[in-house]
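Section 4.2 – Deliverable D4.2 (structural model, holo form)

The reporting period included a commitment to supply a predicted holo structure for the target in complex with S-adenosylmethionine. Inputs used:
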Amino acid sequence: MRMRKLKHLTDRQQRCQAVWIQDPEAHWGHWPDLYPEATELWLEIGCGKGKFTALTAEANPQALLLGMERVPEAHVMAMEKAMEMGLQNVRYLIYDAQKMDKCFAPGELDGIFLNFSDPWPATRHARRRLTHRDFLARYAKALKPGGKLWFKTDNTGLFEFSVKEFERSGWKLSEVTRDLHADGVVGIMTGYEEKFHAQGIPICRLVAQYVGAEP
Ligand SMILES: C[S@@+](CC[C@H](N)C(=O)[O-])C[C@H]1O[C@@H](n2cnc3c(N)ncnc32)[C@H](O)[C@@H]1O
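Output (structure tokens):
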């Protein structure tokens, strides 16, 4: 996400101490301690300005939600939203998903959300796509057996690429649709999703579970 530099970024970050995880790697294997009431740990990768993260946390008090974002200007806006809403079960980290093995112990996560990930259309950039097989291997490791990954995008090229990457990497797909809101809005929309939906652009969605490579 390209964003203009924000004025007073540091001050704004400081006001969000209650939801800001500044030392994510120190929580490796201990994330649930942040909110012991939760029975599930969910991660949204690339949460942007955090609309989906906050609304999902609000609707799911049984879960601790983590919003991961690598752009500080978006991350601070996500934190401010959660603070305004007075949410207790959500935290935010400035982090690159590429290093997530250092952040999450094997089997620590119950769920992962990938919403409107950058498509990186050029073939030479395929490894940057968050559904490239190298990323899927990281997710498979961090999710507990039976854990789910929810993926939504407006980009049909990225979606078809992703379906192939999941299938060849030992994931079982369900709830695959190329027009999620055809019969009315389904589930919580992200900031990007609202814009695309308003323009009449269909939204693709799939749910994936890692089942391991074929013997
Ligand atoms: C197109 S935006 C979508 C934002 C939000 N999920 C939505 O649907 O409104 C993609 C976001 O993913 C973030 N992102 C991309 N690659 C990332 C990575 N490797 N680790 C963490 N965040 C990443 C970008 O900075 C950007 O904010």
